[in-house]
Amino acid sequence: AQIVLEEVKTEVVTLKQQGIEPCLAVVLVGDDPASHVYVRNKVEKAQYVGIRSLEFRMDATASAQQLLEQIDALNSESSVHGILVQLPLPAHIDESLVLQRINPNKDVDGFHSENVGGLSQGSDVLTPCTPTGCIRLLKDSLGEDLSGLHAVVVGRSNIVGKPMAALLLQENCTVSIVHSKTKNIQDICQQADILVAAVGRPKMITADYLQSGAVVIDVGINRIQENGKSRLVGDVDYEDVFAKVKAITPVPGGVGPMTIAYLMLNTLKAAHSQFKETCKD
Ligand code: GUN
Question: Bridge partners of 177?
Fold first, then answer.
């Protein structure tokens, strides 16, 4: 993550020399404590790399209409290049309606259906930060060419599982997705050269799910009580699998920081492409 942040920092300097100040707007609705922590980290990292960040906080009782109006205002503001609405939203607001309202060119989360569709077709669109960062981690460990490797994705969420599978396919991996209705999860996981766990089940993946030398990416962040203390663990039993794997990401400190680094990279990408569009006009 630190390497990516340094790359972004250098690129920001170049953009600023061209007269563009990349800017990310983060919208936070309600008072979910974890969301507040995530947003604070995003704003801090933006500052670190020289990206301007704007934070918009709305009350948990804000209406969908108020949120949509905020998004419209940010869509029309040409100095804002990236818009991120922190999830989850309060239950009374339709998440999909909100995500669809964001201008796809400013959708640094890559959640708008235009970007989801683009990813599925292999176009150069904004892609979700977590899985895109995971590809970077995998290439760091396995080299640039992931062709022919069997990648097993555990979980099928819109935020991680599905885009992860699409990105791995783009890298010419053989991709399996396993989920709560899959019959023989353990057998399939045992065939994995790459295993990406994103299910939200603490320590579900133990050593007997893996073949020796597998590369494991743990996207899970679960708070558990252990020996009377609260601590964060992943979907993988880190201590149990450690000796068996080629490489594994820790929780916390693995995928999380990389996700934020890729958010910065996406903001840069969005700023670049909006600048090119203005040059055409
Ligand atoms: N909440 C948890 N993960 C994410 C993410 O990747 N993007 C947004 N916007 N909210 C999240």
Answer: 153
Do you find a cis peptide bond into 88, omega within 30 degrees of 0? yes
Is residue 281 over pLDDT 90? no
58-94 pLDDT, tens digit each: 999 999 999 999 999 999 999 999 999 999 999 999 9
Superfamily the domain 1-103 falls into = Leucine Dehydrogenase, chain A, domain 1 (3.40.50.10860)
Report the C-alpha gap between 170 and 29 in whole angstroms: 34
For the stretch 13-22, pLDDT in tens is 999 999 999 9
Question: What pairs with residue 150 in β-bridges?
Answer: 174
- Ligand 1 pocket residue status of 87, Cβ below 6 Å: yes
pLDDT band, residue 102 (cuts 50/70/90): very high
Domain locations in the chain? 1-103, 129-256
The reply to whether 129-256 shares the fold of 1-103 is: yes
Question: CA-to-CA distance for 254 and 216, rounded, in angstroms?
Answer: 11
| Residue 10 pLDDT | 98
Assigned CATH topology for domain 129-256: Rossmann fold (3.40.50)
Ligand 1 centroid from CA 187, angstroms: 31
Looking at the CA of residue 160, tell me the nearest atom of ligand 1. 6
Listed in sequence order, the residues at least 6 apart from 161 whose beta carbon sits closer than 8 Å to its beta carbon are 153, 154, 155, 177, 179, 198
